[in-house]
Design a protein that fits this description.
Elements (H helix, E strand, L loop, with lengths): L13 H27 L21 E6 L5 H7 L13 E5 L7 E3 L5 E3 L7 E5 L1 H7 L8 E2 L2 E4 L2 E4 L12 E8 L6 E2 L7 H6 L11 E2 H11 L13 E6 L2 E6 L2
Antiparallel strand pairs: 1-9, 2-5, 2-9, 3-4, 3-6, 7-8, 10-11, 12-13
Amino acid sequence: MSSQPHPSTLQPYLRETDEFTQFVHKDILYPLLRLFSRSLELPYEDFLVDRHRYEKFDESWMRYMAYYDEHSPEEEQKSNGLWLMGHADFGSITLLFSQPMASLQVRQLDGTWKWVKHIPGAIVVNAGEMMEFWTGGYYKGTVHRGEFTCSHLLLMSVHGPPADQRGHTRCGLFYFVVPNDEQKINTLLEESPVLRAAGVKRHFEPGKETTSGTYSRARISKVGKSAVHAGGWKGIKEEVVGGVVTRWYAE
């Protein structure tokens, strides 16, 4: 549970919320991490699980958010419908509970964007930047836009919904997975014969890798506050955050 105080309206539901969060983390996330470990032939099945222990989290990363579609026509025209740049999440995995309204676009290899189809009861699994760091790009961070993001009290939609779905309140349920704070995130070349056989390169020079806690806090502090979020440009922009190059996609 969060180390920050919760609003009084949430207080009666904290126990229920904690039970749900633990279920998602231990019964959904852990099996997924074991699949990643198997696919990379890491030394043991719980290799990645041990780097995401629920008991060591300072905060829950579950987000339940309502977004109100109240942008004026002038704001829409100014931003060209793009309210936050396309990006990869900074953690290792993000779980997005599918909702029956268009809300998520994924960037294709040819640079186009494709809406993710709603499947009732499904969970969308996106790899994040730290999974890309660990695998040297063998698993790439999913570049996406369209779901809602949160930094402190800031709520934003990444991209405007289709015209026929404007004017509706959206509720999103997301689980942002970040490795335990002390974990150093560098390519697992010694641990994974699969990565060695694939010939991937080490993402950071040994001794210069970031830790999960350092990078996640640096990324959170930048959301909506740096010049790269101002819009008015096309293509791809790079920004150094916590000593790591992060890319933002405006088209």
